[in-house]
Design a protein that fits this description.
By secondary structure, the protein is α/β, with parallel strands linked by helices. It has 6 helices and 6 strands. It is 36% helix and 27% strand. A 6-stranded mixed β-sheet has the order 1-2-3-4-5-6, with helices on both faces.
Length: 136
């Protein structure tokens, strides 16, 4: 199963009770969902995070970036944190398909409630936990 298929299953599963999704549309680089409240939410599939893909996203749009739980993607998140925390409606899902695990972070919200000094340690801990590795 590729990341796009995983994303479609994940989003539909999250909506299984409320049944708010009225439309799912594959737009190539992303899947767009329209909900009963007329909000559109785009799920961009970006296996290797990079600035070129992120820079094409409107800060005001409801966006989720689905990516692989790889060290390079964690490093990107950390190095670009100052920029990413400015997107109020952006969420990241780091997926480990082998273990069927994930971790989710919304930089805008996380920045407001967390201690900057422990940012790297906290993000790294979530990364390793998704890999099935407990850190000391």
């Amino acid at each position: 199963m590729d990341l796009k298929e995983w994303t479609s299953i994940y989003v539909k599963h999250k909506d299984i009770i409320k049944k708010n999704i009225i439309k799912e549309e594959d737009k190539g680089s992303h899947i767009e969902y329209e909900y009963k409240n007329h909000i559109k939410h785009s799920y961009f599939i970006i296996p290797e995070l990079n600035n070129a893909d992120i820079d094409n996203i409107n800060k005001k749009d409801f966006t989720t970036i689905v990516t692989r739980n790889k060290k390079e993607n964690l490093d990107f998140l950390i190095s670009e944190w100052e920029k990413l925390k400015e997107f109020p409606n952006m969420t990241f899902i780091f997926v480990n398909q082998e273990l069927n695990t994930k971790w989710v972070i919304k930089p805008y919200t996380h920045h407001k409630i967390s201690d900057e000094k422990s940012l790297v340690r906290g993000l790294t801990a979530m990364f390793y936990r998704c890999e099935g590795i407990e850190q000391q």
